[in-house]
Amino acid sequence: MSVHSIHPPIGDEGLADDCERCREISQEPFLHMDDANLCSLMHRVTAWRRDRAFPRSTNEHHAMSMMEQAIVRYDRMERLWAEADGPSDDEIYNRVGVEGGIAYDTTADEPGSMGEHDWRL
Fold first, then answer.
1. How many Cβ atoms sit within 10 Å of the Cβ of residue 67?
2. 2 located within any domain
3. In angstroms, rounded to a whole number, what is the distance separating the alpha carbons of residues 26 and 22?
4. Where are the beta strands (DSSP E) in 17-101?
5. Are residues 16 and 51 in the same domain?
């Protein structure tokens, strides 16, 4: 592990180009950054996505690119998980309806049958 050269804190100014340690961090930010600096990097990526003219060093660009890829992948995985979960609890439990003052289960075996879930209101 190399040492940092003297430059402003990573959390404030990002990764510096003239620092060997910052170059190493930029190659594997998820491995080499603590939670506070990763959170700061994530916020800088969010700001950069709003304004592409966001100032950054080459090392910062590399780390931000990796963070942006992780954010995009997470968003996609979250969407896929939501689609793969199947029906929601509301969709499952709202199969019960009310007709003519009688609550009935629409999943009864025989059409028109009140089934075993016949509840009087």
1. 21
2. no
3. 6
4. 96-99
5. yes
Residue 120, pLDDT score:
45
Read off the pTM.
0.60
What pairs with residue 120 in β-bridges? 102
Domains in the chain, number: 2
How far, in Å, CA of 50 to CA of 110, rounded?
57
Q: How far is CA 87 from CA 91, 93, 117, in A?
A: 6, 10, 21
Residue bearing tokens 């804190």: 9
Question: Please, which pLDDT band fits residue 106 given cuts at 50, 70 and 90?
Answer: low
Contacts from 53-56 at CB under 8 Å and sequence distance 24+? Answer: 56/14
Rounded to whole angstroms, how far apart are CA atoms 105 and 118? 7
Show the domain range for 106. Answer: 89-120
Q: Which residue has the tokens 């209101």?
A: 121
